[in-house]
Design goal:
- This protein is an all-alpha fold.
- The chain has a domain at about 30-80.
- Helix content is about 80%, strand content about 0%.
- Helix 2 runs antiparallel to helix 3.
- The protein is elongated.
């Protein structure tokens, strides 16, 4: 496959992201609501509450991805200096 053409660091990074994606794909239903959102969602009903919870999780991905990229670049810069 194409993995043999990648450098070892890229193989590790690709493996890490693949494992993270698989773990997040099979994760049980997460509850990512604050107390105010939970109260609002309970008033809406079950189906809209699930949609609201999915939206909260969806919006949570962007900041975590940005932090991940910053952390990876920081780690790579420090690893290159050593």
């Amino acid at each position: 496959m194409y993995l043999r053409y990648l450098c070892p660091v890229m193989k590790k990074a690709l493996s890490f992201f693949l494992v993270c994606f698989l773990l997040l794909s099979v994760a049980p239903a997460l509850r990512a609501q604050c107390s105010v959102c939970k109260k609002t969602a309970s008033q809406l009903g079950e189906k809209p509450a699930k949609g609201m919870n999915a939206g909260v999780l969806y919006l949570m991905v962007a900041p975590l991805a940005i932090l991940g990229v910053i952390g990876y670049r920081w780690w790579r810069r420090n690893a290159a200096e050593e």
